[in-house]
Amino acid sequence: MSQAPRPNLLYIHSDQHSPYIAGCYGDPLVETPHLDALAERGVVFDNTYCPSPICVPSRMSMLSGRYPSDNQVWTNTHILDSGIPTFAHAMGAGGYRPVLVGRMHSVGPDQLHGYAERLVGDHGPNQPGGKGVDHGQLSGTAGPGRVSLRLSGHGQSAYQVHDEDVTAATVDYLNRLGVAKRAGQAAEPFSLSVGFMLPHQPFVARLQDYRYYYENITPPQTPEPFGDHLHPHIKHWRQACEIEEVSEEETRRARAAYWALVHRMDVLIGQIITALRENDLEEDTLILYTSDHGEQVGEHGLWWKQTFYEDSVKVPAILAWPGRLPAGTRCDRVISSLDLNATMLDALDCPVLPHSRGRSLLPLLADPQNAEWDDVAFSEFCQDAAGAGGPFPEGGIFQRMIRRGPWKLNYYHGPPCQLFNLQADPRERCDLAADPAHQETLAALKAEVLDGWDPEWIAARMAALRADRSILAEWGRTVQPSDQCRWKLDPAMDYLDPEQLDDSQRNINK
Fold first, then answer.
1. Quick one: DSSP state of residue 486?
2. Per-residue pLDDT at 503
3. pLDDT tens digits, one per residue of 288-298
4. How far apart are CA 121 and CA 102, in angstroms?
């Protein structure tokens, strides 16, 4: 009896996609027909939490299967130790030749972390101190700052150009596999990871996509006026980012652009899946779509990510595998992005990462009624003062979230905790941390958050890494080493259309 062929993997990882803005997650406005079709052919996970609500820590955790504290990668300037095996290493050890096209956001000389080949790189410097990115007319809009709302609307984001290059390279890769298959050449199963930048801000989209959403976009469903009633950290964050008050017009423009960018990303994903199908590769392929973190898009008066609110810390997760996973189903169990890592390795029959925190979802999906599953997920967010992730207070911040069953606790080292019952309060309007009726729950969740996670130790480690990084950055500035794998971002790629610029926007950086 012949053995069944080993499956292929197509793993698509976007940047900053809130699960709430997708048709298959219930958004009535956004047009995401390709993600919706993928959901109809597979499983949609409704409660998936990222390991950190910021890019590099989340992505390095997704690679390694370990939490940021395990990796000691908490900020966008920290470097993942190349001695830590990733799921790409495990795929290679399992007999695959893993290929990456596009975004990884790894800092340091190792721009592969287990991938055998990388066809398109990131737009930023590989090394600390390397030559930075010039976003031209949209300078400053990629970070957390009011400028990203002021300079929003229709035009072009270089990130979309990047993703178009990524899509073209991916389609070409799949077409070449198809040519070989049609020629009768024996082909090894492939493991292909695709990294998108969209829908990460700048909140700027091409007019052809933007116009429809500008005309039809709705305001945030959970608005939050600025005031002393806010949690101390949230109040500080809004002040530091100058988003105490955001005009209706800025909100409309930025949200319209974000919806348009999600739609455009879906179009690109559709091109990749079409190439997979046209080359007769779909039936043997596990497709996984997810993102590194969400996006607030004005909910709770917040923008970007960097918080533990659901819009920021939750991510979409869709798995489709013909004949192996139930089609058109949903799973509301609480999972971590790290579980997706473990699931891919399990599906491809590759070695388990020795220190992974991830749990394979395959037993749960095979027998959802009887499989043992602990409904828990963690996320952490630790940043230096004035670090690359945003304007943080002197001394930095040390925060961790736990979602257990219907409960979510946000721990802030110093400020008070937040406690929400997401079953009764899915939009997190009512903080129960001070409610006498819930002190037992708060104490139990706080103890679990702090079990094996020491904010004082993290502060000391971050200080040590900061000292190391100062030498590495000065070396990079002096030596200017060549980038191993970098996509060339031309400042002319980033712009607002002339009619979108008014005088105040033109003068914002003067």
1. B
2. 44
3. 999 999 999 99
4. 5
DSSP element (H, E) containing 320: strand 314-320
Residues whose CB falls within 8 Å of the CB of residue 76, separated by 6 or more in sequence, listed in order: 54, 55, 56, 57, 105, 107, 387, 388, 389
Using alpha carbons, list the distances in angstroms from residue 8 to 279, 348, 459.
13, 8, 42
501 CB-near residues (< 8 Å, 6+ apart): none
pLDDT digits (tens, 9 = 90+) for 247-288: 999 999 999 999 999 999 999 999 999 999 999 999 999 999
* Average confidence (pLDDT) over 333-361: 98
Q: What distance in Å separates the CA atoms of residue 116 and residue 118, rounded to the nearest whole number?
A: 7
CA pair distance 267, 208, nearest whole angstrom:
13
Q: What is the pLDDT of residues 114-146, one digit of tens each?
A: 999 999 999 999 999 999 999 999 999 999 999
> What one-character-per-residue DSSP string does 392-427 give?
PPTT-EEEEEEEETTEEEEEESSSPPEEEETTT-TT
Taking residues 201-210, what's their average pLDDT? 98
HSE-up of 368 (CA within 13 Å, CB side)? 11
CB atoms within 10 A of CB 290: 21
Strands 407-412, 43-49: parallel, antiparallel or unpaired by DSSP?
Answer: unpaired
Say yes or no to pLDDT of 509 above 80: no
Strands (E), 98-163: 99-102, 117-118, 153-156
- Residue 189 burial (10 A CB sphere; 0-12, 13-18, 19+): middle
How far apart CA 364 and CA 372 sit, in angstroms, is 7
What is the C-alpha separation between 308 and 377, in angstroms, rounded?
12
What is residue 3's predicted lDDT score, i.e. its pLDDT?
Answer: 59
What the chain holds in terms of domains, given with CATH numbers, is 8-497 (3.40.720.10)
Kindly report, residue by residue over 444-477, the tens digit of the pLDDT.
999 999 999 999 999 999 999 999 999 999 999 9
DSSP H helices, 151-194, are: 158-182
**Are 32 and 122 within 8 A, CB to CB?**
no
Q: Which is nearest to 494 in space by CA: 214, 62, 151?
A: 151
* Residue from 350, 405, 384 nearest 461 by CA: 384
